[in-house]
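hey
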């Protein structure tokens, strides 16, 4: 908190937002009376189980869908009242997206993919080329600019996705399960990168996930359940807690630890007794663990 002096103005204001889908005779209340103010530069995570309404909320925030009632203000402007044309222009100028499935154009190189948002904004060819190259360097892909998506790993493709979202310096970036297809090590890389880039440019980053560990990268965690906002709390980003990040990596890569019941925080052992117990456990193979448990 102290190292990243937070500017405190509200960039996104959600007011009494509800979304009801009608499917045949049935009504699905996907969002119910959501109220939420998001501040400039905040990294905020919306967490909830599958079907809780996360993507629906993101779609309303980004103006991809209209609310049934209530409204979304961005920079004080009521985007819920915009026409489709106004929304499209607004998104091009102010919003970037990162998707779970990367959504890169398969026939285009990394460099061409990253240039896309700049083409829509009418940036000259030379300037786009320069900006896209800089963005790809920023995400560590200087050596892969001429590669097409199918010539890159999942993590590299998502880094192209990040470069594309950030290249035009939008005020807000929305990411829906951005690491859903990545392993833990790559997830850490990608999350760190997104948090770092949004902090450097004071951009607001809104992440949607069902994964508690991903949520830990945010400055603020908002929980929704059955379309209702049930919790809203500040958080110290995992990007500022390298020891906890390391523990997360070890949990994932160590098959024995993976089977251990996790405390609520997934905390590492604190007392010498606990530490001893853990190191003894580590000498067992996963098979030993299973035998031990079934014998209890
Ligand atoms: N276009 C639609 N028409 C009808 N119902 C919908 C539509 N989109 C979403 N829903 C319903 O709204 C609810 C919330 O869906 P949403 O996609 O927002 O969930 P989610 O939290 O993003 O889930 P997941 O983690 O699986 O992506 C679900 O019950 C879903 O079936
Ligand atoms: Mg979803």
């Amino acid at each position: 908190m102290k190292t990243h002096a937070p500017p405190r103005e509200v960039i996104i204001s959600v007011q009494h937002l509800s979304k009801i889908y009608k499917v045949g005779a049935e009504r699905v209340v996907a969002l119910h009376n959501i109220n939420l103010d998001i501040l400039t530069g905040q990294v905020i995570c919306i967490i909830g189980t599958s079907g809780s309404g996360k993507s629906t909320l993101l779609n309303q925030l980004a103006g991809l869908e209209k609310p049934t009632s209530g409204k979304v203000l961005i920079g004080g402007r009521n985007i819920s009242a915009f026409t489709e044309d106004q929304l499209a222009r607004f998104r091009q100028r102010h919003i970037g997206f990162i998707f779970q499935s990367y959504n890169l154009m398969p026939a285009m190189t990394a460099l061409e993919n990253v240039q896309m948002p700049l083409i829509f904004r009418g940036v000259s060819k030379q300037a786009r080329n320069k900006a896209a190259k800089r963005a790809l360097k920023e995400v560590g892909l200087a050596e892969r600019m001429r590669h097409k998506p199918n010539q890159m790993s999942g993590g590299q493709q998502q880094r192209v996705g990040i470069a594309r979202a950030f290249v035009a310096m939008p005020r807000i970036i929305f990411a829906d399960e951005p690491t859903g297809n990545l392993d833990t090590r790559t997830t850490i890389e990608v999350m760190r990168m997104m948090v770092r880039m949004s902090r450097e440019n004071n951009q607001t980053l809104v992440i949607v996930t069902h994964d508690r560990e991903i949520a830990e990268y945010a400055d603020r965690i908002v929980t929704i359940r059955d379309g209702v906002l049930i919790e809203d709390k500040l958080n110290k980003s995992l990007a500022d807690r390298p020891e906890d990040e390391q523990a997360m990596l070890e949990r994932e890569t160590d098959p024995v630890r993976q089977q251990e019941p996790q405390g609520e925080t997934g905390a590492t052992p604190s007392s010498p007794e606990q530490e001893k117990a853990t190191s003894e456990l580590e000498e067992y193979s996963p098979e030993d663990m299973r035998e031990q448990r079934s014998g209890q």
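The radius of gyration is 21 Å. Residues 21, 23, 28, 30, 48, 50-56, 210 surround adenosine-5'-triphosphate (ligand 1) (CB under 6 Å).
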